[in-house]
Amino acid sequence: MKVLLTAGLWLVATTGGWAAPIPAETLFRSDLVGTVAMAPSGDKIAYTVHDGDDSIQVRDLATNEAVRTIDLGDYPVRSLTWVNDRRVLLTIDILDDYRSETYRVGQRTLTVDITTGDVAVMFETERGTLRRNRFLGRVTDMLPDDPNHVLMPAYSVGGNHLWRVNVETGEAERVERGDDDTVAWFTDASGRAVLRADLTSSRRYVRIYAREEGEEKWRKIRSVRLGGKKDEEERDFWPVAPAEGKSRYYVLAHPEDEEFSSIKLYDYETDEFVETVIEADGADVITALTDARDGSLLGARVQRDRLETLLLDKKAQAHIRGLDVYFENDANVHFWGGSRNGRFAVLYVRSPTMPGEFHVYDYDKARLTYLFDDKEGIDRTALGRTTIEPYMGRDGTALTAYVTHPAGLSEDAPAPLVVMPHGGPEARDVYDWDPMVQFLASRGYRVLQPYFRGSSGKGRSFAEAGYGQWGGVMQDDVTDAVLHLQSRGLAEPKRTCIVGASYGGYAALYGGATTPQLYACVASLAGVTDLRGQLKADRKAHGRRSEVYDYWLKAIGDPDRDRNRLERTSPLSYAASYPLPVHLAHGEADDNVPVEQSRDMEKALRKAGRPVEYHEYEDEGHTFYEWETDIAYAKSLSAFLHGHIGGAD
């Protein structure tokens, strides 16, 4: 094999020809397959196909042939579940066009008879409820003992109530009354509502209420920080599955006196944890695995470098170990449900060089059957290989980073380097598929993702080590990762750029300002540039006494007491003499990091005559909704990198 690496070109000569950069349109477009669900009997699967208009395909697993296609036209499918062996329940997005752009303006849930094609829209007979609810896409309980009904929340006069809905006709009757701020309901094994969550005025916390059997009044038991994210793994307490016994529920919890999160049995009458049910050695449990039909607890997921699945069923757990070995301990194996008798399971397998494959696993025969990929047109020979790189922080702390090497290039050969600190900062990177990383790697860049202190996943102490350390130890850990690669001869400053989004954008800008000798350029997407300005925006949005603002005071600092430090560690303070060329980008409708953070930085840089380019995306928020925006940003970033550190454009 022959490798050519120049300032403007990166190509790999193989026996099959040249591996060209993978187009952004290929990497960032929506998955071809949206979701897959297995029929309760295990003889069929249903899956959604995104190919122009959406459709549902039903496949017979014995013959591996499609038995029915249900065309949904312009209605993208959000989720799909089998109600029984004859009928599937799905949630669809309602779209509308405005000024030549298409927007999601609502959701509806319906069921389809796969034999006849008959459709029933949930709440179809409740016209007033349909009008009041643009989004009707959540199912609280599939009611396994009542195959004709499901429980769904919907707003009506007086609040967000819980309704029993007929899956054959769509008729609905209210069974529980909620408040205007109620956002979630939780039921026991019999379908009785026992817990509920109400959103606070800050929109960043929920209050959990409980009600014992025979009681009418709800009682507040917990206040839970959402942290701006919707996934349960970002919360310190969240109900996940009903448990046996009076006033018992399984919860995903991270008590303040415990280092790692775990699945616990919780008594909501006494507000006490009864026992720890699932825990992991040295890592957080991030999500619970539950049965799609009855909601019972099956196990949990643990995010180490790769995803680890822990099942309560020990025999099933042995199969999991075997599947990890089958995929050479190099992939993340996700369980997407299975048959009611427990014989079959749907698996989704993904790794840095595997965009995603669906399989069916037969427990009885220990046999894996490939179904299909969820992406098309990706040349896997052009994908970069990811390694886990240990390194040492300057204070002696053992750290790791994920390093993705350009395809066809030796792991010890030099290449242009892109340093990508993640956002959050209480978040993390993982050993998994990442379209932006592969977009860069296919253009000849080595990509470094440091797992710095302040990140999540390694316990409470590791995350809290980043409190008050914006521009401090978190930045040092990023810097030390770069120095480590440079010491190994894998990077050099004149061909290194630091790139990040949100907190990562802050780290990129601050790193370029204070350690310019390490980099040739800087790129920030929705990055914080003025720490006191960001705190002011958080205080205005959530209130001086809000739990959200209290969190950011701990994480960043007090705008009055820590004024000097915050100004000293704000990238905006360095704009007048900023030493490197800068690429800025921001969503105009960002309600997390205000767009003014990037606008002010651009204005200050231009006023000082410093090299900067700025891209603002209309109607986009903190993360991009439209995949076309992802493509536009990736292309502008690629051109910027190409102009300063080489690589293919």
UniProtKB/TrEMBL annotation:
GO terms for biological process: proteolysis. InterPro entries: AB_hydrolase_fold (IPR029058), Peptidase_S9_cat (IPR001375), WD40/YVTN_repeat-like_dom_sf (IPR015943). Residues 436-646 form the Peptidase S9 prolyl oligopeptidase catalytic domain. Residues 1-19 form the signal peptide. The keyword Cytoplasm does not apply. Keywords: Aminopeptidase, Hydrolase, Protease, Signal. One of its GO terms (molecular function) is serine-type endopeptidase activity. It comes from the Bacteria. The keyword Glycosyltransferase does not apply. PANTHER family: DIPEPTIDYL PEPTIDASE FAMILY MEMBER 6, SERINE PEPTIDASE S9 FAMILY MEMBER. This is Dipeptidyl aminopeptidase/acylaminoacyl peptidase. The lineage of its organism: Bacteria, Pseudomonadati, Pseudomonadota, Alphaproteobacteria, Parvularculales.
